[in-house]
Amino acid sequence: MQLFSIEYISLVVGFLILLIGIWGILTRKNILKMVIGFSLFDTGTHIIIVALGYVKNKTAPILNQPDLQTDTAHKIVDPVPQALVLTAIVIGLGVTALMLVYAMKLHNEKKTLNIQNYKDLKW
Amino acid sequence: MGTIVTKILYALLTLFIVTNYGLILSGVVHKIGARVGRRHGIRFYQPYIDLIKNYTFRTRITHGIMYYIGPVFRLTGGIGLLLFLPVIYGSPVFDNFSFAGDLTFVLYFQFFGVLGMALGAGESGHPYSALGVSRGLAQTTAMELPLTLGVLALAVQYHTLNIHDIVAAQQGSILHWTLFTNPLAAIAMMLSFLAMMGRSPFDVVLAPQEIPIGPPTEYHSALLGVLQLNRAIFPAAKLILFMNLLFGGATNWGELIIKTFFIYMWSVFVGIAYPRFRVDQSVRWYLGIPLLIGVAAILVVKYF
Amino acid sequence: MVAPIYIIATLLGVAFGLGLFGKKMNSSAGFLSLLALGFASFISLEWLAGFWLYDRAAEYIYTAGFQPPFSINLLMGKEEALFTSLINIAGFFGAVYLWDKLKKIGSNGYVTLMGMILGLNVIIMTRDLFNLFVFLEISSIATAGLIIFSQNLRTIAAGFKYMLATGIISGILLLGIVFMYYFTGTLNIDDFLAVHSLAVKGFGVAVFFVLIAIVLELKPFPANGWGLDVYESADSGIAALISAGTATASFFVMYKLLPLGTPQFHMVLAGIGLATFIGSNLMGLKQTNPNRLLGYSSIGQVGLLVTILGLSEFLGERTTFIAYSILISHFLAKAGLFWISGIVKRSTIKEWAVLRNSRLLMILFGVFVFTLIGFPPFPSFFGKWDMMLQLAASNQYFWIIGVLLGSLLEGVYLFRWLGYALKLDNTELPSFEVKWNKVLPVVVFGAATFVIGYFVSSIHPYAKVINYIPLAVALAFVLIDFLPAYVKNTLAILAMAYYYYYLYPTLSSFGAVFGAIFMVGGIVTLIAGYAYKGQRRGFYPFALMMFAGLIGLIEAKTTIAFFYAWEVMTVGSYFLIIRGKKSMPHALSYMIFSMGGAYLMLAGFAIASVGQFNLDMSTLSHVLVYPTWVFILLAVGFMTKTASLGLHIWLPGAHAEAETDVSPMVSAILLKAGVFGLVTLFLAMGDQLIGGEVSVIYLLGWLGAITAVMGNLMAAFQEDAKRLLAYSSVGVLGYILFGLSLMSHLGWLSAISISVTHFMFKALLFLAIGGVVWRVKTKEMYRMGGLIKRMPFSFFSVLIGIIVLAGLPPLSGFSGKWIFYNAIMMKQWYLQGALIFFSGIVAFLYTFRLIHSVFLGQLKDEHREVKEAPFWILVPQYLIIGVLLFFSAVPNSLLKPIGKIITPYFPVGALDWTGQHAVSPFGYWNGLVIFYIVVSIFLVVLVWLIINNRRAQKVKQFNIVFAAERPFKPETTHYAYNFYAHYRKAIGILVEPKITGWWEGVAEWAHAMGDKIRKIYNGDGQSYVIHIMAFIVIIYLISFGGF
């Protein structure tokens, strides 16, 4: 991988977003902001996945393109990470949605979104 | 059958001699004690009078069976102890039943009467009786320790627990006495002997000077008579035991009387010279120097 | 065979189908789900049966018509079949259990539940790493979904923390997976395993992320606060599914991916597991909420499983057996416990006393607790045994210590809980509702523990030869527990008598002596059981279980059979002891000491097995490695039962608070199990030297002597009659230990004969005093007094008992003393010997105190009408007295046979018998002649007294001379309280409870530690995430950074 290649940059960006996401989860007291942090964390992961599958100068693995009919394997980027990322996005969506449901329920119960107020269970 | 009858007759003879000796000894010692205290004292035959008096009393009450047989236990213990000892060395007549058990047995048997009596006293319901027993037992535990160590040292020295053999080993010269051949053990045992005789400073069990206290508190008349009889026999038996173990035994009655008299005097002199210990004091005292002497006796015989 | 894909198809299909169901069709949705889960269970069970019975080959399932790596593939092998069976069964019974709850939620609930089970199934079967990620996410989303159905704040907050944590963990997993793909171009696990290397740079990091994510899924200490919160707050039915289902599946994933790690990482894994196991059990000590406690236990158990995986290199081919037996035990027990907790619905473990309202659930609770800790006959017992043996064989002593320590800690809080449930007052507590659908799963799982326990033992190469019949008979008494006590008593006596008759010809040597103590002793003490009216529920199964264990000890040919019997005996005796009214804390400390001792024994047996070709008891005589340690471990293990000084603190309470006929069983009989152990050990191993110089047995001799003195001194200062007797047992057992330590003919003769007579006099005394306590309703001696008038028969029993105990001639106790003197002289242990004799004299103190304070002295007003002890309690006493008097008059009837047994082992120094005349190298003694002489003198003196003192007037105790005054009242006149005040003043310093204090300090310290550590779980979701992050970093550094 070259230093300023697109895949390298996206890899770095992906990690940055991931770290921002973790930072958000760890430092924000507002539950919604934590969920956003989590979303960022997820997105970062997704970018990393895509970055890893990218091969320079190759096209998307959509096989009905005319110029892909021959020597396919050398002309496309790795399709697997792309499939993976789609699945991961779906799952991430599910998790985020469920987290928001939790946030809503928590708010309904205690009328606050500060995570510090939900420490009834401990030790 | 004949031998058994003979044995029994011999035993009765021993018993008769020792009882009388014990009674007289008791009177004499009282007299000596009084004289040391600048009092006139009783007549030396006073114990006989007391005995007769007690047996002829007409007040006769009992608190129950154990109470009644308590003195029986006591006297059985005294007579038994005497009869299980070889009294006169080398004399088949006064060897009695010593064939039945060795030194270990004799040492344990001395508690037979004490504990039986304690039970009887307990049934009387008198707190002073129980108190006396409690004190006596506590003191005994401590006193036994130097004694046991001494006995063990003796057994190591003579390679036997057979009293005959121990006596036999001491014959020949006064220097063969255990007292001289194994002085540490002898000292430990003679210190224990003080409490065994129940004289001052270890006499808080019976506390004879005060109002009645101690196991016999509730006893009277013939029951007390039995106890008194034991008070003549039991100390005499113990004297004979110590004489056998430490002072070469006796080959005839004269020797026996002289030796036991002087052994007894040891406790009498100490008793007159020293004031009484409380029980906790006497326990601690026995667990001090006498115990150390006993341990030293063991170490000496084991390693030298 | 139904193809495994139908598991997925069925669950998925029904789950989707249920989406079409309306609100009103909840019941039919429920039935449909149950059907689906049942079908899934059927498929996996069918496969399991196929693998097990017909030895089928494992089958790959390919999807989408491609071979891997181009498609996802699943594997149904033997292990997958087992694990999916577990998951589906848990799902099925979980759904049954959750019936009402799910019905209320509606079809969504069923869908979520099935999603979870489906996810777990695929997690187990899949061979594709990304697929694994997807279904991990599915199952955790489904779990979070199930959690959120509980409309309560604590649950929702916990669920949110759970989501946060699992979200982060799966993100890390995903990263790892993707990088693994990046480096290898495959997602197929089998391909990875072919490459397998955490060692390869770069790729190794990717593998590390995958593995650490799986580790985190297993809730390692301390990054597991989120898991605990969910366990505590979720509905018990759901917690059961998480504990039994999710943890099981996650464990399997770890198992599957284990070869990816390097040996070094495996050690890290083992370390994580052990830290989790010990850490969570330590923190569990202070926990009072039942579900959170179960959470701690659950996490701890999974930690243990992780340790097993990490140590697989050392455990070798037994890894699977060990891991599975422990896993299945945990699976069954934890699900069962959570379910019970959901039925009871109490928020502190102290309120679990209410569980007694349902006998069935109480029994099941006990079953699960014992399953969890690894008592026989449950599966984990065999797993733990094998684990220790394998670890010892690989020299891994550190892990042995760690695992046993963790197990001990777990035992502490589980048995405390069990004790609360069994004993605390439950009158104030509201009762709970018992629904069949909630009880059914618990019953099924409870029954399964026995079935699988039996199965596991039957496939164990050594356990299968253990004789299970006695235990089965004992358990059969559970079924006839409804019968009246006298019927069961008769049956129990018959069973014992028959077994003894059957066993008798096979017994030889010391087995014969101890067999007689255990069996004849058992029968004699059982006779007293006729005194009990009603059903006496729960007594006979455990009494017989204890005896089954004791018999097993004698029958044992292998070390595992011995240990098995030992544990069975411990279980039985625990339940006997805890029957006493105030026994709860004492039974607990009994159990803890027993467990501690048992673990030492286990370690000892494990080390002894190293390099041996089999597990025969005879291997103890040629231990190849660390024989000194084996000896010490086993000896200390046995001494927890013989209650030697330092390990005695459980005894007084346990024996004193027990029921009237239980006290003699545990004091007179049970303690001899330890003696039997020591006898076996000493004979097999002989003496051992520490550092080539100090003889262990020499030290044990001192310990025995000091125990004898201290036990007797402490007995002398007791106010409680049964406690006095209990301490006296400590003392006598000290004698026995000393006698055995002499390692000579006479030493053993005295030790063994005292073992026999101790059975008799202690049973006699405990029964007699128990009979008194039965009538006067107090154990405090000073509250009694003068009872000789009311209970003459009991008095006579005690009289004989104490004379024998004190070793006074002419009764048979003296023989022991006499032999001792000779034995000591021959061994030249004079100082120890002097201590022994000192203790003998001290025994006079408490024996007199006992008989005086209870029977002599002043009769209390409230006892003037009290009756003699019950007839059936007197019967065994007089049987024993008869035998004792016979032995006293004819001592060689006891001593000669014992001498004969000892002679092959210690030929030198035997007694020379001529009739009743015994001659030793030092002295002689004739019991019969002495008996005659003493009795004759006694009779003569008695006659003399009667002649002189006829017709004495009988007066009451209160009619005494009292310094010319009348005594005030019996209470103040009975000299009994603090009877040896002066003695205490003199030497009381010796009996200050220093040892008890020390142990209490240890307990206190452990609890304080646990309490301190658990403060890291501060309830803040963000802290939990930080824990996870920090955990990853630290483990990374340890794995790669060369910490």
Describe the structure concisely.
Chain A is mainly alpha-helical.
Structure write-up:
The complex is a heterotrimer of chains A (123), B (304) and C (1043). With 123 residues, chain A is mainly α. Helix content of chain A is 66%, strand content 0%. The N and C termini of chain A lie far apart (48 Å). Chain B has one domain. Helix content of chain B is 70%, strand content 1%. Chain B contains twelve helices and one strand, in the order H-H-E-H-H-H-H-H-H-H-H-H-H. Chain B has helices spanning 2-36, 46-56, 65-83, 103-123, 127-158, 163-169, 178-181, 183-196, 221-246, 253-273, 279-286, 289-303, and one strand at 61-62. Chain B is globular. Helix content of chain C is 71%, strand content 2%. In chain C, the strands form three sheets. Chain C has a three-stranded antiparallel β-sheet. Chains in contact: A-C, B-C. At the A-C interface, helix 1, helix 2 and helix 4 of A face helix 6, helix 7, helix 10 and helix 41 of C. Strand 1 of chain B pairs parallel with strand 8 of chain C, so a sheet runs across the interface.
Parts with pLDDT < 50 across at least 5 consecutive residues of chain C: none
The fraction of residues assigned to DSSP E strands of chain C is: under 5%
The oligomeric status of these chains comes to heterotrimer
Most extensive chain interface and residues per partner: B-C, 82 and 79 residues
Uncertain segments of chain A: none
**Overall pLDDT confidence of chain C:** 91
Sheet/helix structural class of chain A: mainly alpha
Give the beta-strand count of chain C: 8
* Number of helices in the DSSP assignment of chain A: 4
For the record, the count of structural domains of chain A works out to 1
Second-tier CATH architecture of chain A: Orthogonal Bundle
Shape of chain A: elongated
Give the end-to-end Cα distance of chain C, rounded to a whole number of Å: 51 Å
Strand content of chain A: under 5%
Strand order of the largest sheet of chain C: 5-6-7
